[in-house]
Design goal:
Elements: E1 2-7, E2 21-25, E3 30-35, H1 39-46, E4 53-57, H2 63-66, H3 69-79, E5 87-91, H4 94-105, E6 116-120, E7 129-131, E8 135-141, E9 149-155, E10 158-162, H5 171-176, E11 181-185, H6 199-205, E12 213-217, H7 223-228, E13 243-245
Parallel strand pairs: 3-4, 4-5, 5-6, 10-11, 11-12
Antiparallel strand pairs: 1-2, 1-13, 2-3, 7-8, 8-9, 9-10
């Protein structure tokens, strides 16, 4: 299994990184988590063809996490017409929001025709859910927008937690317990922006996080330098195109 960071930055292209997109590549299919602007370009650049894309998980509906979807779907419609379209898994209202987004970009194109949507409501939170035969996931409500979700995805004996955008909350500790990998946003140096995590909060809470490796994404200005000074942290700073193999 490979985890490929297609977009590790925020909405302002800090550190010259593209917006949020993460690819989980398995033997049989790909899972995309969020699809920010630049996702299609980096998918083709760092991961090759899209013919194995089977599932797209969305954490929330902000443009830096969904703005690449119309172009990804357009590409699939032109170059992979013979393949089943991916299933989109996301918060309640995902189908309507993505339909409006696609229609705004290409009115009348019917980009979402044939797409299957699996919307996650309150009753699904923290429940064991499955895609395919061997991929289990759980969802957790996050402190960003009302629809914001985090995902804990388990494939075989490997678990990873992905926060999406969020302020600090205790569910981050719960969802990352025993994970090989925690991919967590870290936007600012201090908690100045509601709904986002900061370096100072990370340092205060780091002993509570039991994941073997933590990768900070959605990094703002000076975040990388501040984290690299903290040698005690189980943190790996990655750039667009970097891969982890499990």
């Amino acid at each position: 299994m490979e985890v490929i960071f297609l977009g590790s930055g925020n909405a302002f292209y800090s550190e010259n990184m593209d917006m949020s997109s993460l690819l989980i590549r398995l033997d049989d299919f790909d899972i995309l988590v969020d699809c920010g602007p630049g996702c299609l370009k980096n998918y083709l650049k760092y991961a090759g063809k899209l013919h194995k894309l089977k599932y797209i998980f969305l954490t929330h509906f902000h443009g830096d996490h969904t703005g690449g979807l119309p172009f990804l779907l357009l590409y699939l419609g032109h170059f992979h017409q013979d393949l089943p379209k991916p299933v989109i898994i996301g918060p309640r209202g995902a189908k309507n929001r993505i339909r409006k987004l696609c229609d705004a970009c290409y009115q009348g194109s019917r980009l979402i025709k044939g797409l299957a949507f699996r919307e996650i409501g309150k009753r699904h939170l923290e429940q064991r859910l499955f895609v395919g035969q061997n991929v289990e996931f759980r969802t957790y409500a996050m402190a960003h927008k009302k629809e914001s979700l985090a995902y804990r995805i388990t494939i075989g004996d490997i678990s990873m937690a992905i926060t999406g955008d969020t302020g600090w909350n205790s569910k981050i500790v719960e969802m990352s317990e025993g994970c090989e990998l925690l991919i967590s946003e870290c936007s600012t140096l201090t908690p100045e922006t509601p709904g986002h995590l900061s370096v100072s909060e990370w340092l205060a809470k780091i002993d509570l996080l039991k994941a073997k490796l933590i990768v900070p994404v959605h990094r703002g200005k000076d975040v990388r330098g501040a984290l690299e000074k903290e040698g005690r942290l189980p943190v790996k700073i990655l750039q667009d195109g970097d891969k982890l193999v499990f």
